[in-house]
Write a structure and sequence with these properties.
It is built from five helices and eight strands, in the order αβαββαβαβββαβ. It has 159 residues and is α/β, with parallel strands linked by helices. The chain is globular.
Length: 159
């Protein structure tokens, strides 16, 4: 089975093609599990890699899209969500909510409906790369289209 035949990758590819037939999944020879690995594989700046981080509160989840060269600010996320208790979701929760394993969490095609927040620092790059359902798969998109395809809310959510 090729990577493009894996269900999570097919889910991403279907949504990309529906949004814009020119967008496609890129298969990498090496892992893009981390932002540094992805940037190295793609020959781009680490900040152009979109990290998809799932955070949980008492009763909900939110996906935060962060530039690869930034760290999520838990205090800013708590303020945005107006919650005192916010933490990173564990691997099982990530798989259950998004349908992806850590290292391949895409900003699109989640199994459950979740709010998406996009860090405004991603706007500095003309081209962004985001995971496409597998650690060796990514897709290329610009900031404006990332906002549109995710229906994400632009915020300042990094340290």
């Amino acid at each position: 089975m090729t990577l493009l035949e894996k269900e999570p990758v097919k889910r991403v590819e279907k949504l990309l093609r529906k949004f814009d037939p020119n967008l496609k999944v890129i298969i990498l020879d090496s892992s893009a599990r981390t932002a540094i690995e992805a940037a190295s594989s793609l020959g781009c700046k680490v900040g152009a890699i979109v990290k998809s981080l799932l955070f949980k509160t008492e009763n909900t989840y939110g996906l935060f899209l962060i530039a690869g060269d930034k760290k999520a600010s838990l205090n800013k996320i708590k303020k945005k969500l107006n919650m005192k208790d916010v933490s990173m979701a564990n691997a099982d929760e990530v798989k259950t909510i998004t349908g992806y394993t850590i290292g391949g969490v895409s900003p699109i095609g989640h199994l459950k409906k979740i709010d998406i927040y996009i860090d405004n620092s991603l706007n500095r790059f003309d081209i962004l790369f985001a995971a496409a359902g597998h650690p060796n798969c990514v897709f290329c998109i610009n900031f404006e289209n990332l906002k549109k395809i995710t229906n994400g809310i632009i915020e300042e959510i990094t340290e």
